[in-house]
Amino acid sequence: MKFIIDNWMLISVALVSGAMLVWPAIQGSAGGGLTAANAVQLINRERAVVVDVCSPEEFAGGHVGGARNVPLGQLEQRLPEVVKNKTVPLILVCASGARASRAAGVAKKLGYEQAQVLAGGMKAWKEANLPVEKA
Q: CA dist 58 to 2, 109, 118, Å?
């Protein structure tokens, strides 16, 4: 007990830093985007536009049906050309969801307020047994 009292500050720092390390994993699994089923509903009901931010090679290997390919590095320049209507829901997809999360920030900065990420990316789409197009 004396150890805890004498070192309360070090113990607090250790607990806080541990929590900060675990937080991204908790946040990522707690609804960090659309599920594949919710994405399908958004596409069918609200005519959402799917934008795949993968490289052209990855896109050719398999993508969501009807998706448009705009690589992440070109998103800021090409997104306004590809999706002119900024009020339409926008679903951003990549292989795992990481690049799409960054793309969502760029899209929102450009005025696409309804930009959302497909949680888990193409991996989650395939796991849900949804159709994949190949170029």
A: 58, 25, 16
pLDDT at residue 135, rounded to an integer? 78
pLDDT tops 80 at residue 27: no
**Amino acid code (one letter) for 96:** S
Q: Rounded to whole angstroms, what are the CA distances from 5 to 1, 2, 11, 28?
A: 6, 5, 10, 35
CA angle 34, 107, 62 (to 5 degrees): 55
What is the per-residue pLDDT across 34-57, written as a single tens digit (0 to 9) for each?
999 999 999 999 999 999 999 999
Contact in structure between 76 and 106 (CB atoms under 8 Å): yes
Q: Contact, 121 vs 96, CB < 8 A?
A: yes
Cα distance between residue 25 and residue 135, in whole Å: 33
* Distance, CA of 36 to CA of 20 (rounded, Å): 28
